[in-house]
Every structure is written in structure tokens, then in C-alpha cells.
């Protein structure tokens, strides 16, 4: 059942992105930034919590999940360390994911010899 819920939540997020690409003049980069920003806002307001609990990986892996992690980390650090937590919380909360993305991206570049688009 967890797989089905993850598929539904993640698929819905992807569906929203596809509709935005097809029906608006927004560029993919702006849609990605909008998704992260929406995750931050929904996370800060506590609206993304039930979505995250229901969809688990389907809600945490897409870009709104990254924004949600930023918001949760920042809120936690502000509660513990005050104003300085506003600057360090998001970095601490997402550092493992960012490091993994850089590491695996580099590893794939070594293995597959990427070429520039022409």
C-alpha cells in the first residue's frame, strides 16, 4: 500500500508539473523553482506534513519535498538556536541530499562520458 500511495502522490506532483509545462509559457526552470518554493511555503504552514505522512517517498523525493526539508530544518534550528538558525537550518537539513546528488552526478559523469548538447 505504501508503494501505491507514493505513486499517487509523486505522480500527482509530476502531473501538475506536466500541465504547467503544456498549458503555460513557464520555462521548466521556473516550474522547478516554483515547486521548491511551494514546498517551503506548504512546509512552513504545516500543510505539507499530512501529504508527506501519506505519500512518504512520493512526497519527499520530488522538488516540493526538498523545499519541505528546507522549511522543517530551518524551523527546527530557529527554535534551538534563534535567528542564526534561519541561515543554518536549511543547509543542515538538506546537506546529505545535496552531497549525494553531487557525488552521484560526478560518478555518472566519470562512468558515461557526457557530451554537450549541440
Automatic annotation (TrEMBL):
UniProt signal peptide: none
Protein keywords: Membrane, Transmembrane, Transmembrane helix
TM segment ranges: 6-22, 29-48, 93-112
Protein name, entry field: Stage V sporulation protein AE (SpoVAE)
Phylogenetic lineage: Bacteria, Bacillati, Bacillota, Clostridia, Eubacteriales
Amino acid at each position: 500500500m505504501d508503494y501505491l500511495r507514493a505513486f499517487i502522490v509523486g505522480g500527482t506532483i509530476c502531473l501538475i508539473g506536466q500541465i504547467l509545462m503544456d498549458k503555460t509559457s513557464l520555462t521548466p526552470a521556473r516550474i522547478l523553482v516554483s515547486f521548491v518554493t511551494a514546498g517551503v511555503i506548504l512546509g512552513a504552514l504545516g500543510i505539507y506534513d499530512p501529504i508527506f505522512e501519506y505519500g512518504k517517498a512520493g512526497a519527499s523525493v520530488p522538488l516540493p519535498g526538498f523545499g519541505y526539508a528546507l522549511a522543517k530544518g530551518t524551523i527546527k534550528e530557529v527554535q534551538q538556536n534563534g535567528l542564526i538558525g534561519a541561515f543554518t537550518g536549511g543547509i543542515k537539513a538538506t546537506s546529505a541530499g545535496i552531497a549525494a546528488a553531487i557525488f552521484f552526478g560526478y560518478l555518472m559523469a566519470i562512468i558515461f562520458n557526457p557530451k554537450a548538447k549541440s
